[in-house]
Specification:
It is a single chain. The chain contains six helices and six strands. With 188 residues, it is α/β, with parallel strands linked by helices. It has a single domain, classed as HAD superfamily/HAD-like (Rossmann fold, 3-Layer(aba) Sandwich), CATH 3.40.50.1000. It has a six-stranded parallel β-sheet, sandwiched between helices. α5 links the parallel β5 and β6. α1 runs parallel beside α6. The longest helix is centred in the middle third of the chain and has 17 residues. It starts with a strand and ends with a helix.
Amino acid sequence: MTPAVFLDRDGTLIEEVGYLDRLDRIVFYPWSIDAVRLLNRAGFKVIIVTNQSGVARGMFEECFVEEAHEFIDGRVREGDALIDRFYYCPHHPDAPIEAYRQKCECRKPSPGMVRQAQRDFHLDLERSFVIGDRWHDVELAQSFGGLGVLVRTGYGEAEIAKPRPKVNAALIAPELMTAVGWILRRIA
């Protein structure tokens, strides 16, 4: 079985812009594609897991989320790197759009997206990691027995200022590349 690194999208792989609703607002951090390529070379599956409640709030359609993922995938592939799969949760328990108003198992920190990826790729979750800019990313890792890394990019600095009880990051990193370096040293 293969380990994975589950990456949050906004604020971790690409810059946080609030609710991403246009392709021209997608800006990669300068290290993002190199970081993904390093994970690929180390044998990790690289999987995006992202909450996209903007769908449930009526800010954009699900087809835009898929279009954004195709755009990100294309840019990553141009850099000779690979994101194995994108998973997203369009739900929110207080959504104004009834079809998306639910408390689901796919919204982070619930492990629904990770469990689906495990079924799709036969992943070794005990050797897997989550990297993100929110405490719920770290909670996601804790929910399946992996290690969670909180990055200071995106909402990371604000999250660090408001620690959550019983939510402990294995590492707080300045950005994705440092987090990836730490992971690669752990498996060496």
